[in-house]
Amino acid sequence: xxxxxxxxxxxxxxxxxxxxxxxxxxxxxxxxxxxxxxxxxxxxxxxxxxxxxxxxxxxxxxxxxxxxxxxxxxxxxxxxxxxxxxxxxxxxxxxxxxxxxxxxxxxxxx
Length: 110
Prior knowledge:
- The protein has helices spanning 4-15, 74-93, and strands at residues 20-24, 36-40, 58-61, 98-101.
- It is of the alpha/beta class.
């Protein structure tokens, strides 16, 4: 959980009594003032280990590559299309009951 929106969602979910499990490419320890279990996940790697979703009831996905290099940026395609497909497939194999997906037009580049 490194983005502005994700951090705000995590804080509000914790305030409402939910346990928080976050993912990050590099961050393995929580920087929050409340308990957050961090799991490492690099959406650009092409690999989505099922273990990331262990003991997860709901996923709120708001990660994206919003670099504005072009419409045909391979990193954007990996993170914004292929990784989301992998996430959905992993959710189907898991016990996750809900997926909340946030996005914006910034995800498609210029």
